[in-house]
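Q: My labmate handed me this sequence with no annotations at all. I'd like to see what the chain might look like in three dimensions before we decide whether it's worth expressing. Could you predict it?
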Amino acid sequence: MMLDMISFAIGEGALFLGRGLLVVLPFLPQSLATQPEQLMIIIGFAGQGLFAMRFIIQWLKSEGEGRSVIPLAFWYFSIGGGMVLFLYALWRKDPVIICGQGLGLFIYLRNLYLIYRERAQV
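A: Here is what I predict for the chain of 122 residues:
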């Protein structure tokens, strides 16, 4: 199945990344080079962190302006976090997260397109 191949490729990429990290940071656990699960969990949490940062950015910008606003950075953090979580979901073969993040990515990219299209018309 296609999802199995994608998941395997992402796992192999995680192992490659783990081996690279061990070259640069030899004090890390050696299991990073043999078990993609550890690194993928870290990557999943990093994606969730990126995704959560969008709300902090939006909150700080709104407080600064005294009204509710959605800054451009909100959409970039949405895309960054969404992409990492989408890869994580593909690796886990989780159809719920794949669908949710896949649709979300489309919406975030569409919003950026609309923002830049409007700016180009001004």
